[in-house]
Each structure stands twice: as C-alpha cells, then as structure tokens.
Amino acid sequence: MLVSPVISQAATLTTPTKVTHRDRVPPAATPAHTTAHAPAHQTPAAPESIKVSSQKMHFMRQQHVADSATHIDHQELVNRNVRQMTDIVRVAPNLTIQPSFGSAGLNFALRGVGLMDFTQNNTPSVMPYVDGVAYPISIMTSGMLFDMDSISVNPGPGGYTHGQMTTGGEINFHTADPTEQFHAGITEDIASYDRNRVTGFISGPISRSVLFRISGQSMTGGGYQHSASGQRFGNADLGALRAKLRWNIDDTTHLDIGGHWTTDQSEAASGHNLYNGYGVPINSDLMQTSWGLDPRFAKIIGIDGRNTKPREDNMFWGANIRFTKDFTWGRLTTLSAYESIDEHELSNQTDSVLSYGNMFRNNQSNVFSQEVKLESINPAARFHWTAGMYYSRTEQAQNFWYDSSDRPVPRR
Predict the structure, then answer these.
(1) Which residue has the higher pLDDT, 245 or 13?
(2) 276 CB-near residues (< 8 Å, 6+ apart)
(3) Which of 105, 172, 238, 385 has the smallest count of CB within 10 Å of its CB?
C-alpha cells in the first residue's frame, strides 16, 4: 500500500519553569563569586515556551479508517509519469485497466473482479469517481488525468457510505483544489514519436471568501505505428479544460462549483495481425498495421470516406455543485452532477485494408446524479455513522454499425 507521509498536527507546548538565582548562568564577564551574593528578592524569569510546528499531509482522515486502499499522492504520480488511465496500473497493485476491444472505452478490474464490457451500457464492477462524482460510463474518464491531487484505489465491495454500489471496488480521482495564495504553472513533456503533452493551471483568490482554479492539458503525437507504405498512425489529438470555484461562506459552510470539457480527435488504437484466418498477410514488423474503409460504409454512417484511418471524434463535458455544512456533531453534504457524452468512434478490429470487421460507434449519453449525506466527523470517536440517499439517472442513445462485407463465406 502506498501512503503519503503523515505528520502530526501543529502543537504548542508551554512548560512553566521556576527559575531562581541559583539556576542562572552568570555572564562571561561577571566574576563567579558575585552569583553567590545575588539579591534574594530578584524576580524569576518568564516561563519557557516550546513551539513545535509541522504540516498536515494528504489522507489524514484515512489514517483513522481501517481499509486496504492504495493512496497515491500528486508527487508519486509525477515521479512515476502517470499521464493516462492505463498508467495507473504501474502504481496500484491488483488493478487492471484495458481498452475495450480497441475502443476508447476502458474496462477496470480490481483483484480479479471486473467487467468486460463492449457496449458501454453496463454499470462497471469497478466504479471510477472524479471529485466524488460517479462515472458509470467508463469513456467519461477520457482526458481527465491532469492537475491531480491524489488517487485512491479501494478494493470492493464498495459504495456503502457514498455513491453507487459496486462489487469490484472503486477508483477515486481527486483533482487539485483552489488555493488561498496565487499559484500558476505550466509543464511541457516531450517524448519519442513527437508526443507532446502540455499541462498548466492558475489558482488563487478572487476575494477573501472566493477561490478559483483553472487548469488544462493538450496532448498530440505519439503514434508509433505505420502502414506498409510508411504512413504514420496512432497520433493523439486531445484537449481538456477544468474549472473549480470555492465559496467559503463561513468557517463551517462551503460551496464548490466545478466544470470540465474534453475533446478527443485522436487516431484510434490499432493492433497487428498475428494470424491468417481470412487470408490477411502476416508481417514480422510488429509496428506495422493496416486499415481500410469501404466508401459505401462511410456513406451509410455519414463520415468522410477520404480519411480511412480509425479515429475518435468525441466530446465530453460536465458540471457539479457540492454544498458542505459542518456542525459540532456531524457534517451535511449534498452533491449534484451532470455528465454528457457525444461519441463518434471508427475502429478496425482486424487491422486489415479489407472490410473484415470495421465498426462505427455513435453514442450520445448523459448521467445525472444527486447525493445527500449526513455523517460523523470526529475521527477519534469510537462510534461512526453515516446516513444518506443517492439517485442516478442514465439516458443513452447509441448504435453500432459493422462492415464485414469482405469476410469470406464459409463453404458447406
């Protein structure tokens, strides 16, 4: 388990000390015999004070909760170069994240429990959460892994105290919050195959009680595959923005408003033919792949047939409002969220120039969720309690188009 260091809260220790003339150390310039004849009525020195100060780090509350979660802080994510969802498996044990049959949708499995979903219309066994908002359609997580504060991976079953019930567990993504002081930064990460990733943020106060944070990322390039003619394939073309606003109404009342937007125009993932089931020639170059698109199929699904590359044409956006009120005996939290998907995905599942398994996914979905929770907040108490309600509504309108017109008819 990865746990960020935790240091105890700052404390001030005051120790009254009775000081008499016999306890004093004489100045170097004073003869030693003069201390023996010091006046008996001299007033004692002021009490000695010792001040110990430190910082509270991440996951302070989790130290008082018995669990088997893996907690990964921001610095660990940077050190391990975690820049996309599939990279999390390098820092979280027993976690598997795989694309769903070459699509942008992801399948999560934790400790062997997961869901191999192809249609994206099933609630996952391992639920991703971003700032407490459940993402029941995994493709919603596209382009979200930037300006992160921490990630927690919790083995299931889960959802007893928040969100949706899951058997496999959950992955909690906590994005960076607004800061009381002005901060800004930009990072550019350049890698092989012309992959370029730029992230930046700006954060600070608007007034004494209102804070904001705006962050974004852009990722391009990185395509390492090629066709037989040497044409590059697999380049990313993704952009994302996120904004957060925090209103500290008073010391115990807070209102947080957040929103995000992502566009993905990347070339879809592809593979390499390792078999000859349909007469597709096999090549020893593992970096070589093939693709093709029948003009008749392109006309039916309504896309530009001149661009034959498998590709994404997706847009995601969402907004959420969280209200928190602390009492002496507990905390009230309400969370309202709306997430929207507009997905158009063309993939080639057999990596061939012929129409053995071209697929086009058209998906327009949205999710609305509402959570109300009342919980105890004293981590040192022997009795902890939580009461709440959760509502979620998912609307989907999606269809799949397949082109297998070149697949040979089996002989009888």
Answers:
(1) 245
(2) 282
(3) 385
